[in-house]
Amino acid sequence: MATETSGAPPRAQWGSRTGFLLAAIGSAVGLGNIWRFPSEAYKNGGGAFMLPYLIALLTAGIPMLILEYTVGRRYRKSPPAAFRRMARPAQVIGWWQVAISFVIAAYYAVILAWAVRYVGFSLTESWGDDADAFFFGEFLRTAEQPGWISSYIGGVFWPLLAVWVVVLAILALGVRRGIERANKIFIPLLVVFFIVLVVRAVTLDGAATGLNALFSPDWDALTKGSVWVAAYGQIFFSLSVGFGIMITYASYLRRRADLTGSALVAGFANSSFEVLAGIGVFATLGFLSAGSGTPVDETVTSGIGLAFVAFPTIISNMPLGVLFGFLFFASLVIAGLTSLISIVEVVVAAVQDRTGIGRLPAVLGVGGLLAAVSVLLFPTDSGLYLLDAADHFINQYGIVLAALVAVVTVAWVLRRLPVLQKDADATSAVRLGVWWRIALGVITPLVLIWMMIDSLRAEFDENYGGYPSDFLFWAGWAVALGAVLLAVLASLLPWRGEPAGTEPKEATVGTEPDGPPGGQSNGQSDGHGPVEGRP
C-alpha cells in the first residue's frame, strides 16, 4: 500500500501484535476505569447496567475501535494527515483531536503527580484522621474560590516534573523501544497489582454488602433513557476513542495486522478491567460501610474524591492497610502513565508528520511545551479548579463532539465505510458485516447526538460544579472552543509533499509484504534513524 510520499522515511512499526495490543489496552485502561465505572454502574441499575453496557460495547465501542484502527493502518499517518488523505477539509478533525489531546495531557499529568505522592503517603498514612482536609488543604492548598493563581505548590510541582521526564524519556526511545517495551512491563504489573488488591478487598469484613449493592439488579432502570446514555458514555470515555490515540497507534501496525480481532481483544480486556475495578472498589466501600455503620449508598463516590479521600480513609482502618494503599496508588500511577504516554504520542506523531522533523526533536519540542503548560498552571492553589473545569468541557464538548463530527464525516459525507470495511476484512479473521456500517452510520451518531443534547441541557440548567460563570467561560468554554479554533488555523497552513485527498493505490492491504521480521523497515532500527521519521 503506497501510503508514504516517495522518498519519505519508512514509518515506525510495532515489534509484534502483542506489543500493539498491550499499548492499546494500556491507553484504554486509565484512571476512569478505576474511579468512574463503579459509581456509574451503581447509579444506573447495578447488575442490570451490565446489559446496556455490553450492548454499548458491541454497537459503539468496538465498531469505533475498528474504524480508528482501519483509518490509522490504511493511511499510516497521524490523525490530521490521515483525515487529509480522505479529503483536504477533513484534516480539521484531525487537528481538533490533536488539540484535545494536548489539553488532556496537560492536566492528566498532574493527577499522576498526586498519585505518585500518595504512594509515599500510604506508607506512613500521612493523611492522618481527616483525609479530606489533608488532600484539599495541607497537600493541594486549594484556594477557597476559583480564580487567578496566587501560589505554587512544591509538593505537586516536583513529582509533576518527574512524571514528564519519565513520559518524554519513554516517547524519545521510539514506538518499539519505548512505548511497546514500557507497556510490556506496565500492563502485566498493573494486572498483578490489581488482582492482589481485589483479592484483599473481597476478604474484608463487609465486602459482601458492598458487592450486593453493586450487582443487585434494578431491572426497572433499563426503561430509563439516562441509563442507556450513561452506558454509552462510559464505553466511549473508557476506550480512548474520539481523540486520535487509536488512529495514531494503528498507523504503526503492519499491513497485514488483524484489525477486527485486535479491537475485540482490546475492547473486552478494557471492560474486564472495569468490572474487576468495580468489584475491588465496592468490596472496599462495603468494608467502610460495615465499620462506620453508614449505608453503602452514602459511601459511594467517584473520581478524585474516591481515590484521594475515601480510599485513604479506608486504608487507615483496614488490616494491612499500608500494603493495600501502596498497591492501590501504584496501580493509579501505572494506569495513568500508560494512558498519558498514548495521549502525548498523538501530538508528537502529528508534529512529525506535519514538519518532517525527527523523533527526538518532536518529543522534546512537544513535550517541552506540554510540560511547561502543565507545570505553570496545575501545581497551584487554583490548579484543582482549572483541572476540573478543563476536564469537564474538553470531554463533553471536545471528545464527544469531535467524535460525532468524525463519524458523520466518514460515514455520511465522504461515504468511506464500505472502503474501510473492505480494508479491514482483507486481513481480519472476523469479517465485518452490515452491522458495522449500521453501528457507525446510525447508532453511534444518534447516541453521540443524544449525549450532546443531554449534556447541554444540564449545562444550561445550572453552572457546572456551582462555579461562577466568568470562571467557567475562560477555564471551560474557552478551552473547548479554543481547541476548535486552533484546529482550523492549523488546517490553513500549507503542507509540503503529498497532496491531499490521495487514497492508497490498491484496494486492499492484504497483498503488501510486511518487511523484515521484528517490525523493522529497510534495515533501520527503531528509534535510531529513518524508521522513526528522522531524516
UniProtKB/TrEMBL annotation:
User: What parts of the sequence cross the membrane?
Assistant: 20-38, 50-71, 92-116, 149-173, 185-207, 227-252, 264-288, 322-348, 360-379, 394-414, 434-453, 473-495
GO annotation, cellular component aspect: membrane
Superkingdom of this protein's organism: Bacteria
Locations listed in the record: Membrane
Matching InterPro entries: Na/ntran_symport, SNS_sf
Q: How does it sit in the membrane?
A: Multi-pass membrane protein
Any idea which UniProt keywords this protein has? Membrane, Transmembrane, Transmembrane helix, Transport
Instruction: Tell me the PROSITE patterns matching this sequence.
Output: NA_NEUROTRAN_SYMP_3
* CDD domains, per database record: SLC6sbd_u1
What the entry lists under SUPFAM superfamilies is as follows:
SNF-like
Region annotation (Disordered) maps to 500-535
Name the record gives this protein: Sodium-dependent transporter
